[in-house]
Amino acid sequence: MPEVKCSVANCVFWGSGNNCTADAIMVDVDDNWNKNYEEEIGGEFVDTDHQYSARISADTCCHTFRPKRS
């Protein structure tokens, strides 16, 4: 898996050096921000059946994010 950098320090997958420690990363278009995925890979819910297009990086979002518990 490639190195994935993330600056969202309140995510359970955030690691030192701003590294993502998730087993799988789900990135989607912003229009799907509230979509619930049913397929699971490495403990992460993902969607491997659909393909969407984004114009620019700001049109995308990471669905792997899970907030840390206080």
TrEMBL record:
Its taxonomic placement starts with:
Bacteria, Bacillati, Bacillota, Bacilli, Bacillales
Q: What is this protein called?
A: DUF1540 domain-containing protein
Task: Show where the DUF1540 domain sits.
Answer: 4-65
